[in-house]
Amino acid sequence: MKTRHTIGGLAALSALAASLLIPLGAANAAEDFYAIPATLPAQNGTIVKQEASSFYLEPLKLTPAQAQVQRIMYKSTDSQGQPIAATGTVLMPKTPWLKLQDPLRPWLGVSERPLVAFNPGTKGNGDQCAPSKRLATGEDYEGAIVKGLLAAGYAVTIPDYQGVGTAPKSTYMARVATGNAVLDAVRAAQRSGLAGLPGNGPVLLSGYSQGGEATAAASELAASYAPELKIIGAYAGAVPANLLEVAKFLEGGLYQAFLLSAVSGIATAENIDLTKYANAAGLAAIAQNDGLCTVESIAPSAFQDTAKYTLSGQKLSVLAQTDPTIRAALEKQLIGKAAPTKFPVLVAQSLLDDVIEPTQTKAMAQQWCQGGATVQFENSVVPTHVGAAAGFLPTMFGFLAARVNGSPAVNNCAAL
């Protein structure tokens, strides 16, 4: 109990400190932006509204990004095929696009500025965790990667995903809703009117962890959901492709907050009534977790026995395996069944990842290979999920540059 009060106090102090950095009028204006209008446009990817925003690397706001920044709300579709509004950010470097070329083959290369859909990793289910909010306050932990993409000359769009920032609730780990949000963020960015951003230019997808899941889902859905997009490559790192396996891996460990987030997200996406499965303690733990961002969510649920959260007395990962309704909902989120064959993909996974079970990521890559995709699969032995994320960055940036440059894609499917 003391630990919870301490964490709650720190969270409150953090929130107070952040609020002191933002003028009250600006904060209210930002919150008004996330209110969803009664009527949405018919076409997916249509911008509902947009406004000037900002991007800082730290909360003191000493280093504004050299980019035009727009916060956007756009029309998308959820897992049940229903219209939704989602939010995100579009960033355009202020420097001109310099065509990357192979000096031995100068006719290759992309002449139009590419747009990277940078799909964020887990930020938390709370509305305050939305990347479009955290980027503007200098609190986004992936801000340095975004800065690197801008420095390389890419335009960048960053989705908040469904229900983060906007009503009603996050659909964390829901394959279709997440993939759709990514593809519609690309469409919206191309329709944003930012000077120098092509309306139908080359697109790259990139993300790690939840962002890897979003990238992989969007890669599978692109051919049917957004066939007009000119996607030239995708990087998907540490992909939670099989939630049944990931749940077993997370059970009882430090990062059980991600398991609780997934329980809430999939229940929301698939219209599952959690009161049929979770007891009062479980419902309270899920509700608490839903209100927190990633870092502050870890301690309250770490190393807990999740059997105390369920009406049946089963651990969450066991319930996921044995209950037909829950298992069916999780199997709908499987990634790997529909190979992205229109563009090459880079899949990366550390064998020493402490969050994402490594073999299920490789299994996804193998399924894509069997389906005819061009897959560059990269393993590493960099310890921890966070360490591997940093370790794969040079490979990611090299892969994106190679796609822009028109270099032949690596395909090591035969070695998998």
In CATH, the topology of the largest domain is named: Rossmann fold
Helix content: 40-55%
Per CATH, which architecture of the largest domain?
3-Layer(aba) Sandwich
Count every helix, treating DSSP H or I runs of 4 or more residues as helices: 15
Strand content: 15-25%
Give the domain tally. Answer: 2
Main sheet characteristics: 9 strands, mixed
Which CATH C-level class of the largest domain is it?
A: Alpha Beta
CA-atom Rg in angstroms: 20 Å
Low-confidence stretches: 1-28
Structural class: alpha/beta
**Strand runs, count:** 9
Major sheet strand order = 1-2-3-5-4-6-7-8-9
Give the CA-based shape.
globular
Mean pLDDT level: 91
- Going by CATH, the homologous superfamily of the largest domain would be Alpha/Beta hydrolase fold, catalytic domain
How far do the termini sit from each other? 48 Å
Order of helices and strands: HHEEEEHHEHEHEHHHHHHEHEHH
Question: Could you name the key traits of this structure?
Answer:
416 residues, alpha/beta, Rossmann fold, 434 Repressor (Amino-terminal Domain), 2 domains, nine-stranded mixed sheet, 9 strands, 40% helix, 16% strand, disordered N terminus
What does this structure look like?
The chain is an alpha/beta fold and 416 residues long. It folds into two domains: 13-242 and 345-415, Alpha/Beta hydrolase fold, catalytic domain (Rossmann fold); 247-331, 434 Repressor (Amino-terminal Domain), CATH 1.10.260. Helices cover 40% and strands 16% of the residues. It has helices spanning 2-21, 24-33, 131-137, 143-151, 175-190, 210-225, 243-250, 256-269, 280-290, 294-301, 316-322, 324-331, 358-370, 385-391, 393-405; strands spanning 47-52, 67-77, 83-93, 115-119, 155-159, 202-208, 230-237, 345-350, 375-380. The longest helix has 20 residues, at 2-21. Mean pLDDT is 91; it is low at 1-28.
